[in-house]
Specification:
Layout: H1 6-16, H2 20-29, H3 34-51, E1 59-66, E2 72-80, H4 83-86, H5 89-105, H6 110-115, H7 124-135, E3 140-148, E4 151-156, E5 162-169, H8 177-190, H9 202-218, H10 226-241, E6 247-248, E7 251-255, H11 256-263, E8 268-276
Antiparallel strand pairs: 1-2, 2-3, 4-5, 5-8, 6-7
Helix pairs in contact: 1-2, 2-3, 3-7, 5-7, 9-10
Length: 278
């Protein structure tokens, strides 16, 4: 059996990022063969991934990147099980790696992103699995979003667990840094379901109408009045839950639509992406 030196252990640690005792154990089991030892460590990560597959991931980091020309944004959320892990340097480095891979690969889906080859030739998923083996927790990319627009603004909340991309059009010569950030913060805080009422899916509309009718019926309103009352309640739903119709949280005398139009005539929102780890 090959003698395992401290230098060997440190070399494997540098290659894999795994703990000292795990590296020593893997090298011993592999009789000093570094590639075989790396495979052992990967299998260890996969075992943890399989064992903890159903565990909840309520902590982690949301990260964002907007292209230099301001027209494309990438938003990723890497989640873990516990808050202490979310603060570990290795986890934060991995979150940055996920974002960098999203930008470099321009992956269309989460699955494409996980399959993206890294500098060492391995997939991003393999790197995630490796870190699972090191820290002993489930890690998962719980959100991956891309947004393209005339101008893309972004915002990451102070807890690093919520983030937004928002697309603007008809910006003209306006400096959109402040208003874009304000609108993105509005989306984080107020959780709109769509940009405007036209973006609300039909199932939601039907549900809100039925709820409105039931509430009116419970209040003893005449059957002939139910539809009209329900439509009124639906309009209130639109005002409270669609972005352009919401009152601006910093100044409730204006809606988001009015705020944008005041900044630059005709400016509006084309789309937004909101992600949260919870």
């Amino acid at each position: 059996m090959a003698a395992i030196t401290a230098q060997d252990v440190n070399k494997l640690r540098a290659m894999t990022g795994a703990g000292m005792m795990d590296c020593k154990k893997a090298l011993t089991e592999a009789d000093g063969d570094f590639e075989a030892a790396r495979d052992i460590l990967r299998k260890q990560g996969q075992k943890i991934a399989d064992k903890r597959a159903e565990n909840a991931t309520a902590e982690g980091m949301v990260m964002v990147s907007v292209s230099e020309d301001g027209t494309t944004g990438k938003l990723v959320a890497l989640a873990c099980e516990t808050e202490p892990v979310a603060k570990v340097e290795d986890f934060r480095k991995l979150a940055q790696q996920v974002l960098d891979a999203a930008v470099k690969s321009d992956a269309g889906t989460k699955e494409d992103l996980l399959a993206a080859k890294q500098d060492d030739g391995r997939s991003l998923q393999e790197h995630i699995t490796d870190l699972m083996g090191k820290i002993g927790e489930k890690l998962d990319i719980v959100a991956y979003e891309t947004l393209t627009a005339e101008k893309v603004a972004s915002y990451i909340h102070s807890d690093n667990k919520k983030g937004v991309l928002v697309g603007l059009k008809n910006v003209g010569d306006a400096n959109t840094n402040e208003v874009g950030r304000d609108v993105a913060m509005q989306i984080v805080a107020m959780k709109p379901v769509a940009v405007d009422k036209d973006g609300v899916d039909s199932a939601t509309v039907e549900r809100e109408i039925e709820i409105g009718k039931e509430q009116a019926r419970a209040e003893g309103k005449p059957e002939a009045m139910l539809e009209k009352i329900a439509q009124g309640k639906l309009n209130k739903f639109y005002k409270e839950n669609t972005l352009l119709n919401q009152e601006f949280v910093k100044d409730n005398s204006v809606t988001i639509a009015q705020l944008l139009d005041k900044t630059s005539k005709g400016m509006t929102v084309t789309d937004f992406k909101r992600v949260a780890i919870a």
